[in-house]
Amino acid sequence: MADHTSQPAQAGQKSDAGYWSANVRIILVSLVIWAICSFGFGILLRPLLSGIEVGGTDLGFWFAQQGSILVFLALIFFYAWRMNKLDKEYGVEEE
Amino acid sequence: MDQFTINLLFVGASFALYIGIAIWARAGSTSEFYAAGRGVHPVTNGMATAADWMSAASFISMAGLIAFTGYDNSTFLMGWTGGYVLLALLLAPYLRKFGKYTVSEFIGDRFYSPTARVVAVICLIVASTTYVIGQMTGVGVAFGRFLEVSNTAGLLIGACVVFAYAVFGGMKGVTYTQVAQYCVLIMAYTIPAIFISLQLTGTPIPALGLFGEHVASGQPLLEKLDQIVAELGFKEYTAHHADTFNMVLFTLSLMIGTAGLPHVIMRFFTVPRVADARWSAGWTLVFIALLYLTAPAVGAMARLNITEMMWPNGTSGEPVSVEMIENEQRYDWMATWQKTGLLGWEDKNGDGRIAYFNDKNAEAVAKAEAAGWGSENELTNFNRDILVLANPEIANLPSWVIGLVAAGGLAAALSTAAGLLLAISSAVSHDLIKGSINPNISEKGELLSARVAMAVAIAVATYLGLNPPGFAAQTVALAFGLAAASIFPALMMGIFTKVNNKGAVAGMLTGLIVTVIYIFLHKGWFFIPDTNSFTDADPLLGTIKSTSFGAVGAVINFAVAFTVSKMTGAIPKEIEELVESVRVPRGAGAAQDH
């Protein structure tokens, strides 16, 4: 009987760990995109994008003033959608 | 009806609306006062958080800073939106799962230490009070202009108004009031921008107009702007001039600070479920982005309009004459803003003209002297914080638009000031008094102490707001640095690592103290003018300005916390379980009080 009660808890913990590492992976990928679009394209890599013209200036300027904000929005909604799906895959969603 | 009456009408009507909502939704119990009974929909919550977030710094100050600097100040745009990614991915869902009312409660419980909780409260109060100073600067500018009084009188009137309604409504009043404030402020920001974008580029969407064609010249707008500012000896608008390292650090400080500011984080405690906390961060950024995508267009277009106004015959023609400024209706804004002391011009060489150019640029000075306009810039003062408010007048828009902008600027400043005061008061009454000093305090006593804390905070902020350490957005940037260096690392380590109590306390204290000292060394001790040993033009460490130091403070915080935690042993089993449980949404119930 004791085994029966501890078994689901054990399984639950295992999947919790899997859930967490999947979450951390998604976060890392998202943050890499976050950094490349803002610090990268907007500031540090701007000289590389200087050949691509956008409305009287270059793509780096667009990323710094508008593009990065649009990417941030996309990232947050992607994360919310992906995590709410992941919750269900691992059965850890709220009742 | 004259402009003054129209402004009063718009400001008065919007205030009546907010106060009406606050009374209708007046907070009864403590739980309602702090977290609105957790019944707030993600979209509603997002809108209210956006209003809470977009303060005088975003509404009044930011476009002005972009207008006069150009590309280099894109840092504000990226910094103040990029932080939401950190908030949404690293903090919001877990803090909602934890299910308490305040940030310091999480820190106190997670680091199983009343000391950690008190230290968190101190960090929170320092960051929030600095933030309120920036708001009061903006409130002073807005009230000064619209009541046509001096900046100081405007500030004092504003302080009374902020106090009145922050004290009488709790979070619920504030939540629904802030939804109304969001609507007012976003209309006030975008409507004039649409008008101006139509005038200059023929495009009704300012964000597209910015990269569109300047109708009058047939050139791209930004190319035209680069050209005319360069002719007057100013730096090219779209070019990169600032120190790159400092730009990166500054952007990072604003981002981390955004995710560490308690009044924003608190918002995510008020959504019903963990899944909603994730969506809520996205909705918040949608509502913020509406303003942030418009702001760079407002800045660039205003710069173009101002320059063309000062040079009505083009930059190679003659400067505007004093006679035109005094007599032509479209120059009226210069006289009205001069009254606030935030705009100034002077015909220094007595040629009857006001020549506007960069008198720090030898080439531009030589050109001006050769043409007989004198060797000094005669537009002597243009406070960056007036640009957005003066913008509709500069573009000669209908008077109702000017009235609307007045109401919007005040909505932005007031909503944030109220949200911050709420965060400060709940930290003092809930965490400090009920949490540590007197756990048996009655609910009535708790509410009373919350209100007293609000009054004290606003008095301090008003006093310091009379001599602010910078333009509204710059003061606010300091607050972000403080939050970045102290609160964000503790929250993140609480969720993602198993750092112990001693590590967290040591980290928060070092991060906060080092950052405060760095700021005071550059901005003056307690922001008292002339007590600084360094300036941001020539900072203590390399090119790191005091506004950018928050990111360094955060790194120091993490490093100290990990080192101390390594040396002092593991966390207890029940705390390990708490960390595990915060990481999964399952079982998130309603919040509990202590």
Portion of residues in beta strands of chain A equals: under 5%
Q: What's the overall average pLDDT of chain A, rounded?
A: 86
> Main sheet of chain A, how many strands, which sense, barrel?
2 strands, antiparallel
Low-confidence stretches of chain A: 1-11
**Biggest beta sheet summary of chain B:** 2 strands, antiparallel
Strand order of the largest sheet of chain A: 1-2
Number of domains of chain A: 1
The radius of gyration computed from the alpha-carbon positions of chain B, rounded to a whole number of angstroms, is: 24 Å
Question: Strand order of the main beta sheet of chain B, please?
Answer: 1-3
- The share of residues in helices of chain A is over 70%
Query: What's the average pLDDT of chain B?
Result: 87
Helix content of chain B: 55-70%
The largest contact between protein chains, plus residue counts on each side, is: A-B, 44 and 51 residues
Please supply descriptive tags for the structure shown above:
A: 95 residues, mainly alpha, two-stranded antiparallel sheet, 2 helices, B: mainly alpha, two-stranded antiparallel ribbon, 4 strands, globular
Give a written overview of the molecule.
The complex is a heterodimer of chains A (95) and B (594). Chain A is built from two helices and two strands; from the N terminus they run H-E-E-H. Chain A is mainly alpha-helical. Chain A has one domain (21-89). Chain A has a two-stranded antiparallel ribbon with strand order 1-2. In chain A, a hairpin with a 2-residue loop joins strand 1 (53-54) and strand 2 (57-58). In chain A, helix 1 packs antiparallel against helix 2 (59-89). Chain B has 25 helices and four strands. Chain B has helices at 3-24, 30-35, 42-53, 56-69, 74-98, 103-110, 114-146, 151-168, 171-201, 206-209, 221-231, 244-258, 262-265, 274-292, 295-310, 322-327, 332-339, 362-371, 387-394, 399-437, 443-465, 472-496, 501-523, 549-568, 573-583, and strands at residues 320-321, 343-344, 353-354, 381-382. In chain B, helix 3 (42-53) crosses helix 14 (274-292) and helix 4 packs across helix 20. Classes of the chains: A mainly alpha (95), B mainly alpha (594). The interface between A and B is large, with 44 and 51 residues.
